[in-house]
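From the pipeline queue, job 12 of 40. The input is one protein chain; the requested action is below.

Action: predict structure.
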Amino acid sequence: MLYTQKTPAEKHANLRAVLDSGELLRFPGAFNPLSAKLIQDKSFEGVYISGAVIAADLGLPDIGLTTLTEVAGRAAQISRMTDLPTLVDADTGFGEPMNVARTVQSLEDAGVAGLHIEDQVNPKRCGHLDGKAVVDDDSAIKRIRAAADARRDPNLLIMARTDIRAIEGLQASIDRAKALVDAGADAIFPEAMKDLSEFEAMTSALDVPVLANMTEFGKSELFTNQQLADAGIRIVIYPVSLLRLAMGAAERGLDTLTSDGTLASTVPEMQTRARLYELLDYEAYNTFDTSIYNFKV
């Protein structure tokens, strides 16, 4: 009932422990707090909070228009509704190294278990679009060093994302990832790998966990969990998948309403009221105070 009973510190420690287990961790992207509850209910290992999804939810493109306040606010709303660790997209850290440090502490206060900072220039763009640009090695290193130094709980996962693969190639991506680990990154997110062999090259070259981004309509093939695990990947995210599924269903529903004048034919496809109440745990609220909460599930 209400919010998770697990403290942020417990979730930080839990994420570190499961990463040490060597198993592949699956983090579907939550587009709101309710979808985070569904991800937990379906027994996934974590929840991803995508910057692209936050921007889209605001009706904006993913080109660096969102603010730290907006990202931290949504991260807090999602993180407090699930016992699972949450990993949030912190873009470029919303500014220079001092801004990166503030970003880390703000997101730590929001209750996330981890965050990633990328090496794109400002303003950034979606990692699977052409025309990206990245900062030089020194600037990228300073961002991650500032992030690692700013955290107050050493178990907060600081992940470095690098977009350099699309610009300078795989070896440049490996070299930069190594430098970012030396700067304090606990894990690496190599964006827009071309094929499975590139993921394998990255995991073989690094001694920290590597994340794979399985976003639809992107530059990477949608590999299976087993393929990724065999390649040494430790975390896989599906950042925009649930939003795409939900928006696809919503669009089809609106088209049906326009063509048929009723949604009667789509009711079997809808989540039932009983299932929604189950996810929201109405019964627990009912039990808490029957003098106020006296509804039936």
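Job complete. The first helix runs from residue 8 to 20.
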